[in-house]
Amino acid sequence: MLFLIDYENVGNAGMKGCHCLNESDHVIVFYSDTQKHMERRSLEAITNSGCVFEICKLYKKGKNALDFYIVSKLGELFGGGFEGKAVIVSHDNGFQAVRDYWDKRAVHKKTVLLSNCLEDGIVSGNENNERTRELRRLRENLTIGGFFADYTENMRRKEVIRGLFDGTEYEERTEEIQRLMEGKKKTPKIVYLNCLHSFGRDSGLAIYNRMKACNEL
Questions:
Q1: Which of 23, 143, 164, 189 sits between 20 and 30 A of 35, alpha carbons compared?
Q2: Which among 182, 183, 170, 152 has a CA at the least distance from the CA of 209?
Q3: pLDDT tens by residue, 148-198
Q4: What phi and psi values does residue 95 have, to the nearest 5 degrees?
């Protein structure tokens, strides 16, 4: 994906999600002396991601000058053969016209998305990949009480499993065993199959039978 960041407009808040960038992305930060500082963690996340990284500093001040830079660069890249999705990261509603042009008026249609930060742009890109799925998972709204109830139950179960395998050959692997029990819809059959898959037939069966005999799980 291509990200054109109106940094003068969004500042550090617009960099949320920079840790999700990867080598398939192209990031261009447009900035001016008005907003020329960025948090180290964001800059390092961008460079560590392996993406194509560019900066474009405003040459001469003027009304909406940086917006014109962004639109010009977008046209340059599309004209140069870029075929992917482009995201303009800005709070400026005026960029809606750019999106409308490439979607409604251009001879060769292009996808231009608008977002307030990198993370929103990645999610709205709706790509079928692991980072999009993980971001959607992390952004899921949960009830605080329900989440805490699950957390409490997992902690209780963790202590039971630790005691159950204390002194056995599996005592150093109780965290792996705990993960077999986590999540919803873990029926006895699923737990049994997970044990065999993770620990092999003999060890998996031994672990499953010990847990099955425990009345606290």
A1: 23
A2: 170
A3: 999 999 999 999 999 999 999 999 999 999 988 877 667 889 999 999 999
A4: -70, -10
Residue-wise pLDDT tens digits, 74-129: 999 999 999 999 999 999 999 999 999 999 999 999 999 999 999 999 999 999 99
Q: How far is CA 70 from CA 27, 73, 105, 111, in A?
A: 12, 5, 19, 15
pTM for this model (two decimals): 0.84
Give CA–CA dist 22/19, Å, rounded. Answer: 8
